[in-house]
Amino acid sequence: MMSNQGTYAKAAIASAGVIGGAYAAYQLYKELQKPSLPEEWTQVGTLKNIYAYPIKSCGPIVLNTAECSLLGLKNGWLRDRVLMVVDDKNNFITGRAYPELLLVEPSITNSILTLKHRDMEPVSVNLAEVIALQPQKTATVWSVSVPVHDCGWEAAEWFSRLLDKSTTNYRLVYYASQNSRNLRSTTNKIYKFTKNDTGALPDEVPFNLINEASVEELNGRLKDCQVTHRNFRANFVLDGAKAFQEDQWKFVKIGDNIFEIIKPCTRCVMTTIDPETGVRHTKAEPLETLKSYRQIEDPEVRKTAGNSPRMGIQMALRSGGGGLVSLNDPIYVA
């Protein structure tokens, strides 16, 4: 007769086998969900510019080299779109309604974030102290709740004076998490988003690329103004490709980093604000011209995109974090 100990051992082994099999099946499932990465690449140009936008809707920091993480570009404490300004209900605000934000010039030295504006005295925030001393709270971006730390009264007063809205207390908040936020509920299911593709606080994805030739082609159509790639607030500027060649690509490789193109970047009124002056174009250019010839044709996509035209591509990292990108890196596509 088998002892109780032997019975328990066999049961444990059987249970372990079931659990182990389930785990193996789950791991296989996860692998099958990953996109098959290309083995052959074609060079289309070089990396002309690298920009990080640490504060949502504010000005960029120009970089010569940067690390690619799942949340976006980073360089030490500098991370792309991990700060944002919120109103007194902790809802995010952007340059769409507050174009003055585009003229805020951020810089980061070690953990010290410094904010400058032509009409304001500079103010600094120690992000390390923000994490250590400020309790975590919840803010909202695109109807998604995100964990943030408040950057303190000095930054709050600075932004409140800048925006000149005395009835509202605007605050700067910091997303310290290393994990992507939840996906927007309005995201079109036709796109291949994974739970790691939303980044920290960007509108949709962690990486955005603009083709310089596409900007030049657009300028050839504009009558009342000219724009630059800065109007489109991309992380990467590609030089050397043909105009709108990016419409045909599925993957992009820069350095050792492989990005999957998740969707075209649909454009809004942010493109109509001059990044040098913060003034909105009176005829809503270049948006109106883009609408005339850069519409998305897929009826399923148009259910959420509407008449928003496409310009540039939105990408997510598929090669794992830690790879570097540098100016003049060759850019390959597949």
Automatic annotation (TrEMBL):
Residues of the MOSC domain: 170-334
Domain of life: Eukaryota
Pfam families: MOSC, MOSC_N
GO MF terms, alphabetically ordered: catalytic activity; molybdenum ion binding; pyridoxal phosphate binding
SUPFAM superfamilies xrefs: MOSC N-terminal domain-like, PK beta-barrel domain-like
PROSITE patterns referenced in this protein's UniProt entry, alphabetically: MOSC
InterPro entries the UniProt entry points to: MoCF_Sase_C, MOCOS_middle, Pyrv_Knase-like_insert_dom_sf
Protein name: MOSC domain-containing protein
